[in-house]
Amino acid sequence: MEVQGNPTRNHEATLFARARDCLEVADVGQKLVATAVVASEFHADALTLGDAPPPQPIGAPGRPPRPTLVSPRQVPHRGLGSPDGRAALIHAVAHIEFNAINLAWDAVYRFRGMPAEYYRDWVGVAADEARHFALLQARLAELGHAYGDFDAHDGLWEMAVKTSDSCLERMALVPRVLEARGLDVTPGIIERLRAVGDMATATILETILREEVAHVAAGSRWFAWCCAREGLDPDATFTALIARHVHGAIRGPFNIPARLAAGFTRMELARLESAA
Length: 276
What we know:
With 276 residues, the protein is mostly helical. The chain has one domain (15-62, 81-275): Ferritin (Up-down Bundle). The chain is 65% helix and 0% strand. It is built from ten helices and no strands. The chain has helices at 15-24, 28-43, 83-110, 116-142, 155-162, 167-195, 199-230, 234-246, 256-261, 266-275. Helix 3 runs antiparallel to helix 4 (116-142). The longest helix has 32 residues, at 199-230. The radius of gyration is 18 Å and the shape is globular.
C-alpha cells in the first residue's frame, strides 16, 4: 500500500508499522483510504504482531491544517433550526470521529504485548470510525460545508497524551469517559434533529450511536483485562482514575441501558451518578 505524500513502509509488514502509518497520514481522504486498506490487510492475516521498534513518544497525530483548534469554551454553540446550525453540529461530531480514528490507531500502535483480540478490536474500531466520518463528511457536503469549516477543540487527543504510558488508563479514560459521553447525549440530539425535520442526519447518528456502544464495550473489556493483569479491582480503579484525571467534569444524565450494554457495572454507574 502507498498513500501519496506518506508512503507506508512496505518492508515492515507488522501491524504496528501499518498503524503508525495510518496515524501519521495528515490528509483526510488518504487517512480514510489507509485505514480501510490496513484493516483489510489485518483481517486477512497479512500483518504480523512480531518484533517492531518500540513506540515513539506520543505527539500530535496526522491531521489537516483545518479545523482551527481552540479551547472548548471558544467553540460556538448554534441552534439546530438553521442549516448552518445543523452543519456546525455535524462538524463537531465529525471532528470527534476523526479524532477517534487516530485514537484507535494509537491504541494499536502504542500498547504492545496485548492479546491478538485486543488488536482485532481496535483495528475494527478504526475502520468503523473512518466510515462514520465519511458519512458525516458527505452530509456536511450536502449542506454546503466541509470538514475544517468550523473551529474545534482537542480534548480527546489531550486525554490520549495523558494516558500514553498506560493501556489501563487509556481504556478507562478515553472509551469509558470521553467516548461514553456520546452514548448519553446522542439520543437527545437525534430527537432534536427529528423535531426540525433533519431525518438524514438523525439516521446517521442512529447508526453511530448503535456502533459506538460496541466501541465503548471494547474499552470496558480491555480495561477489565488490564486490571486483572495488574491485580486491581476494576470498580475501585475506575473511581480512582476519575477522581485523579477528570475531577468535576462528569456530567449526567446517563444513558443507563447503553452504558450497561457497553460494559459498565451498576456499581460504577451509581458512583458516576453520585459524582455528576
